[in-house]
Amino acid sequence: MKTPRLFSQIRGTVLLLILGVSLLFSLNTAAASLRGEFKTSLIYEKQAERWQDKSFLELDYQQDINFDLNYYLKGRFSLESYYQNDEKKRETDFEIREAYLNYYTDSIDWRLGRQNFSWGSSYNLNPLNYFNPPDQNNIDPFNRKAVDALRADYYPNFEWQLTGVLSSHAETEESQTALRLMRRRWRGYDISASIFSGNSLMEISSPRGGYYPELNKFGIDLKGDLGSQNIGLFSEFVFSDYRADNLENTNELIIGIDYKFENNLYLLGQYYYQQLPLTQLEENQLLMLRAEKPFAAFHNWEVNLLSDLKTGMTVLRPKINFSLQQGLDLETGAVIKLDEKQRSRLNQLNQEMIYVSLSKYF
Amino acid sequence: MFKKIVIFTLFLSLLLVQPGMAQDLDGNQVLEKLEASRKAESHQMTMVMELYSSSGDMRSRELNNYRLEGEVERSLMQFSEPADIRGTAFLLLDDRENEQEDMYLYLPAMSAVRKISGSQKNGNFVGSDLSYNDLSIFSGANFQDNYQAEIEVEDSEIIELHLEIIDPDIDYSYGRMWVRKDLWLAEKIEYYDQHQRLLKVINLSEFDEIEGNRLARKIEIENVQKGSRTVLKMAEVEFNPELDPNIFTTRYLQRQ
């Protein structure tokens, strides 16, 4: 189903609708909430040998029109400067990052507009997120961009949830469809199964240029506790059936555990196996470890380690967050490559850098 | 004259016996009385939580807590301040009969509900000096499931209890509790770590009674080993409000 214009029309209509509704109800601020974040970061990229100054002001606004209807807007104004070889380049941008209407009926919740999906229980790598592509402009390589979509969640009771999605592909604007059935609290586990029909989020290179191949996907997800020690166990599995003859069907599997100790140390480990549709490419096998702990009352450190088990390359991402005062944070971190290998997929995700950021929340 | 002496002697012995009458209770019966001071099957509270570091720096949080007892005990906490955690919500569903506990977290930045592992209850509650199990102090949960108590000292106003920990999820070696006999509420609790060293001192004050339910409106927790402390103030309290069970669902969390 190739209907890119349909989504352009939906997007335009939704934005107009939200803006219109905001104007209509702007006098009624009783059920409204506005919050924001100002963040400025200084980044040094080792490979490009350049300094970057990234700043943004992000505002989000939510207003209840009545008990069953509300809307949400999140916009970001950003200013980015690059300094390289005595040259300076400056870019400004304004982006509506999310904008949607929520409408609630007795058993169905509707959401229409630009939105994020959080399908999949694993940490950061979520093959079950069929819709939101990685946000390349973010320091965190696992951040994703919102897409225009219509979503309906049907709740026959607390335990069951059926979700239907009609969305636009982030790059091609072709329509994508998905259905997910979730069972919560089954012997301590939340389990879901989903099907998807649309285009891959992964671009395939060809002599005629890159493209996003059509495919069907089938996915399973689970999250629960293992044993009486309450060790968290999660897993995602996705089978992709590519329509093009020159592409192989693929499997992706993530399995992981997490645990928080009495001293507040949080540990997470997950293994990711990913087959690739091009036969000449070997599969990826990644190991991801994460440790996080608060210190000195209000501060926090975390270390993420991502290791490519096929090539031996590892990326280390240490980070420290200092809470300077209420709502004011100073964050400093780095991306460090160990035993770098050109053919490793980790090169696409990360480039070596150090950074320091100041965030103000209000 | 002899009659007068007999009456005076009887009166005197009554006076002497009076303070010891609570000695009829054993430690576990004192815990029962503590539980009985909170009869409500549901509550709705707005709390202000002040966190102080050992150097005296302070951060505050404001949260709403809803609790509903039943076959499945349900608790919902929503943070309304400060801005960086505003909208974050925890849902806890404790099915004691089937020994199943489920926890869900709603993060506004992700606009998503996530199931979190039971081990998230280890460690501190949202950066405070309280553990999740300490929350029972102000939520009125079942003391008798957590402790076995013995009376150590008693006078006319206070009973001092030694608390033996019987819940394996509680990571203290033992505790001591001072109970006010006029209110049947704890006014001070001490917890000792696995090396039998004093770890936390909890002082409860500003006692109040609402519709037959007694509570401390101010709870101060000091971690004497770290030097940090947390002050909890119950700003608004309502007992037995008509809470819709549907608010204790992931669907409701998603709607935040």
Short description:
Chain A is mostly beta strands and 362 residues long. Helix content of chain A is 7%, strand content 59%.
| Helix/strand order of chain B, N-terminal first | HHEEEEEEHHEEEEEEEH
Contiguous low-pLDDT stretches of chain B (5 residues minimum) are 12-21
Low-confidence stretches of chain A: none
What fraction, in percent, of the residue positions of chain A are helical?
under 10%
Largest interface between protein chains, with number of residues from each side: A-B, 48 and 38 residues
Shape of chain B: globular
Which structural class do you get from the secondary structure elements of chain B?
alpha+beta
Number of E strands of chain A? 18
The end-to-end distance of chain B, rounded to whole angstroms, is 80 Å
CATH superfamily of chain B: Lipoprotein localisation LolA/LolB/LppX
- Work out the oligomeric state of the chains in this entry: heterodimer
CATH architecture of the largest domain in chain A: Beta Barrel
How would you portray this structure in words?
- The complex is a heterodimer of chains A (362) and B (256).
- Chain A has 3 domains: 1-104, no CATH class; 105-281, Porin, CATH 2.40.160; 293-362.
- In chain A, 7% of the residues lie in helices and 59% in strands.
- Chain A has 2 helices and 18 strands.
- Chain A is globular, with a radius of gyration of 22 Å.
- Chain A starts with a helix and ends with a strand.
- Chain B is an alpha+beta fold and 256 residues long.
- Chain B has a single domain, classed as Lipoprotein localisation LolA/LolB/LppX (outer membrane lipoprotein receptor (LolB), chain A, Clam).
- In chain B, a hairpin with a 4-residue loop joins strand 9 (174-180) and strand 10.
- The longest helix of chain B has 16 residues, at 2-17.
- Chain B starts with a helix and ends with a helix.
- The model of chain B is unreliable at 12-21 (pLDDT under 50).
- The A-B interface holds A 33, 35-37, 98, 102, 104, 109, 115-116, 118, 121, 153, 155, 158, 161, 184-185, 187-188, 190, 223-225, 229-233, 258-265, 294, 296-298, 323, 325-327, 329, 361-362 and B 51-54, 57-60, 82-84, 86, 93, 100, 102, 110-112, 114-124, 127, 171, 226, 228, 249-251, 254-255.
